[in-house]
Specification:
Length: 159
């Protein structure tokens, strides 16, 4: 019976030893797994941070581009507005000039008409004065047998 008990104890000790070794190995494996998991998590975190940084940079770049485009659009709009105002001003000026030219032409025309009328009046007056100075218009002599203004008259004068 003693031998059996000793054998039993031996077997028990052996079993305990095995269990302890197994437990150590299990612990070791768990530790290793934990370390790997931590490493993977760290790597993932780093990648996520990197991606976030990249995204942030891209967003900033996009915002910058948008701002630039907005500024350019505003400038273009301003320029167009200025050009439109200038064109309107030029149009106004041209219209004003045209109106002035029409006015001036009318004035000139009126002046010319007035001058013409005055000139005609003066010419008539001069003519009348000349006629007065010359006295009565002498009557033309008519050749015998001829009527005034006839060819006969001319023929006799030629003779």
């Amino acid at each position: 019976r003693e031998a059996h008990r000793k054998e039993q104890e031996k077997v028990e000790k052996e079993r305990e030893k095995k269990a302890a070794v197994e437990m150590r190995e299990t612990e070791k494996a768990a530790k290793q797994q934990e370390a790997e998991a931590a490493k993977a998590a760290k790597q993932q975190e780093a990648e996520a941070a990197k991606a976030a940084k990249t995204q942030q940079a891209e967003a900033a770049e996009a915002a910058k581009t948008a701002k630039q485009q907005e500024a350019e659009a505003a400038n273009a709009a301003k320029k167009q507005q200025a050009e439109a105002a200038e064109a309107a001003e030029a149009d106004k000026s041209a219209k004003r000039q045209q109106a002035e030219a029409v006015k001036a032409a009318k004035k000139q025309e009126d002046a010319a008409k007035k001058q013409k009328a005055e000139a005609e009046k003066a010419a008539k007056k001069q003519k009348a004065e000349a006629a007065k100075k010359a006295g009565p218009i002498p009557k033309r002599k008519v050749a015998p047998g001829g009527k005034p203004g006839s060819d006969q008259n001319k023929k006799s004068k030629a003779r």
